[in-house]
Write a sequence for this structure.
């Protein structure tokens, strides 16, 4: 890919190259080798420990969003297949897994964690090919964190009495889990690891644009000798997800995805006595006070909104800046944006990869057009985009009003909306002025101000002088339309147990 030189690529005068003269070098291509991934032509469903075709033999194609090339055919599961999977999970729960001592369950989880680490490069390359995310993120964030979740929950499996002192923790039964496309393997780990640690069995439905790492995970289950039926994976369209939610053999539903589908799932479960965890959308405020270290804040802002192309439910998509530092911060941000490399996700130097699907690209494009039409000022760095694939330039909007759609709606793309404030009260007011409440960020040098802000912000996670940091020990979840229940940490375990008195 040719990289257009921009102002930020110009040499400082002290380099002796003359004012405005371009630095005479460019990054060489550094593509990750994709040969470690052995793609099959066709993938089946994973039910009862075996790979099976869909009941009507139907398939769909999953494509690489960076090249639009078809990667493989994947079984298009039906409600009948979902029924088969839930029966397999019930059988595994009743026969063996539900009564297995915690230390035995832990061994399987440790084994899975170790295999994920051993096969981490294979998983990272496949995740990048199927989702469009940069290899440096799938390699350094998604896959290591997925393994870390299995390590962490393996540790809890034989310690449930300590997790919930004075109570007896019992598994719920069969967990029906639906995951999105932005962190396919990581969301699988967030869901499957605590469920198995607590003694539940699982039926998981991956997103249709990113089924491949879940299907590779089926291979890991076999390699770990996990008893058949403990984990079942059914690929297929959204309606198949709904047949999982509604299935009478399911005791617990866990969903991560859009608020709209989350609402439908909650309505579908009303009166059913099934446990439910919802992790939905967000419109996080990332708040920069005038005493913040601006250079560090710029890195945090970039990580907050351009990480994973901004396709992150907790992305810092609304930047709230104290008025006195708006101009220097925006100047620094524009300089930094000019150095972001957009392109082939398999290139190790790529910062922003491909948008996950054409539909998501269209949604981002439409919302960005609405920002321009409503009067916000757009800035995009000059950079060439590949000819094929679903790419979008990192985008920065200034002069944004709270009423603009780009300040209210979840864009789920590399688009930052900048708003300003004068006092901490105004910052809190604006930060909380959203139907969502998943995450937020605060940048200031004062610890007391951090604590005061954290208390007043209606967000499940608040990062201070950093953004988008994840750890298996730390609970994650939202308020309001961002959902309910927590994943991660001891709280995440709680979502998969029934607590009885001793
Ligand atoms: P969805 O909520 O439609 O998809 C998430 C998961 O739910 C996928 O596995 C999907 O399957 C499944 N699903 C879809 N319809 C149903 C249904 N009726 N019943 C049960 N499960 C269903 O998100 P989209 O992919 O449509 O993305 C739209 C927007 O949602 C994004 O632009 C973003 O704003 C938000 N989003 C938020 C996420 C988060 O992490 N909170 C993650 C993804 C999206 P399938 O893929 O087969 O349709």
């Amino acid at each position: 890919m040719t990289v257009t030189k921009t102002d930020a690529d110009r040499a400082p005068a002290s380099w002796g190259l003359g004012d405005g003269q371009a630095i005479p070098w460019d990054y060489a291509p550094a593509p990750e080798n994709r040969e470690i991934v052995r793609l099959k032509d066709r993938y089946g469903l994973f039910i009862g420990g075996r790979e099976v075709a869909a009941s009507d033999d139907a398939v769909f194609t999953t494509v690489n969003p960076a090249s639009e090339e078809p990667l493989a055919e994947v079984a298009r599961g039906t409600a009948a297949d979902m029924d088969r999977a839930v029966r397999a999970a019930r059988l595994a729960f009743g026969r063996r897994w539900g009564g297995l001592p915690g230390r035995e369950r832990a061994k399987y989880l440790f084994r899975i964690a170790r295999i994920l680490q051993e096969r981490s490069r294979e998983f990272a390359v496949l995740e990048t090919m199927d989702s469009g995310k940069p290899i440096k993120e799938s390699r350094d964030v998604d896959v290591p964190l997925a393994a870390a979740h299995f390590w962490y929950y393996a540790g809890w499996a034989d310690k449930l009495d300590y997790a919930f002192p004075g109570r007896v923790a019992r598994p719920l039964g069969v967990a029906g889990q639906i995951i999105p496309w932005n962190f396919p393997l990581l969301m699988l780990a967030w869901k499957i690891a605590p469920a198995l640690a607590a003694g539940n069995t699982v039926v998981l439905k991956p997103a249709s644009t990113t089924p491949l790492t879940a299907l590779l995970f089926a291979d890991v289950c076999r390699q770990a000798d996990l008893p058949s039926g403990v984990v079942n994976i059914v690929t297929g369209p959204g309606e198949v997800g709904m047949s999982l939610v509604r299935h009478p053999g399911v005791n617990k539903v866990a969903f991560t995805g859009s608020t709209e589908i989350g609402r439908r799932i909650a309505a579908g479960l009303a009166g059913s006595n099934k446990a439910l965890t919802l992790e939905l959308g967000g419109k996080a405020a990332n708040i920069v006070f005038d005493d913040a270290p601006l250079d560090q804040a710029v890195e945090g802002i970039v990580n907050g909104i351009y990480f994973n192309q901004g396709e992150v439910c907790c992305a810092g998509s609304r930047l709230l800046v104290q008025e006195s530092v708006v101009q220097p911060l925006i100047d620094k941000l524009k300089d930094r944006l000019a150095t972001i490399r957009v392109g082939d996700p398999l290139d190790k130097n790529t910062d922003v990869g491909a948008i996950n699907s054409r539909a998501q690209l269209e949604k981002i494009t439409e919302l960005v057009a609405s920002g321009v039409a409503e009067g916000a000022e757009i800035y995009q760095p000059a950079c060439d985009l590949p000819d094929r694939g679903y790419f979008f330039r990192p985008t920065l909007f200034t002069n944004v009003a709270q009423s603009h759609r780009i300040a209210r709606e979840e864009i789920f793309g590399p688009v930052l909306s900048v708003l300003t404030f004068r006092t901490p009260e105004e910052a809190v007011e604006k930060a909380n002025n959203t139907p969502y409440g998943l995450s937020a960020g605060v940048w200031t040098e004062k610890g007391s101000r951090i604590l005061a802000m954290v208390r007043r912000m209606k967000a499940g996670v608040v990062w201070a002088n950093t953004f988008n940091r994840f750890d298996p020990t730390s609970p994650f979840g939202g308020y309001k339309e961002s959902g309910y229940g927590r994943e991660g940490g001891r709280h995440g375990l709680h979502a998969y147990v029934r607590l009885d008195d001793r």
